[in-house]
Known about the structure:
Order of helices and strands: HHHHHEEEEEEEEEHHHE
Distance between the termini: 50 Å
Mean pLDDT: 86
Structural class: alpha+beta
Strand content: 15-25%
Shape: globular
Radius of gyration: 19 Å
Low-confidence stretches: 1-31
Largest sheet: 6 strands, antiparallel
Amino acid sequence: MSRKRLIEIAGGIFSILVSSVGFTAPSFASTPDNAVGELAELNPGMTRAEVVLKVNNLSGKIGLTPKEIINQALLDARASAAASTADVVGLRSGGGNTTLLGSGSQKGDVFWSPAATLFIQHGHSGIYYSKAVVVEAPGLGKNSWSIYAKSVRVGSGTQKQHVLTTQKNRDAAANYAYRYMRNKPYNNVFFDNKHVPSSSYNCSQLVWGAYKKASNIDLDGNGGLGVYPVDIRDSRLTSTYFIIW
């Protein structure tokens, strides 16, 4: 079968899926297919049909049109990818997995590392359960886990950060992550990940959710629909105390 025919078939299947999830013709017509495709690319692992389904469901919950949701989600995702890519380009090693994370300063610290999924740079986040152990959602196809920080490989430019709150709040967030957020499947939806508790987590969702649920602290620095690793890194509530070169 020719490549052209495969594309035609895939397009037909996608159109059927769009109709089946109730994404109405007027809404979808005002949201170009290339915008749906771009949002799928910026949320690695998602298909266009999954984006349509997610956007349609979210629209019914928050009262925005699908077009408004996609426009907002794209702004947030583009900003995250641009900031993360710029950071990697500026690093001496290009953000490769060059060294080990190592210990944190105190329980409840967080970290940001340059990282890409399917060539999309969004960075990576995790939280220190103790000075020696972190809890993280490592990526596609993997469950969230706790792991010794000395075993975690990170890129040049990784930042270790304090969360600017009391140690009681830091402890509560770290304990919540360890007790309730491990062994969960990976969530590849970043543009709508501010849900906790959840049946699945991505890296920034896990860190954000631990602090939000346990201490009612919102680490999302830009207040978008979703929270990305750079949103936590650049939050006014986090402060970098060590950079790994």
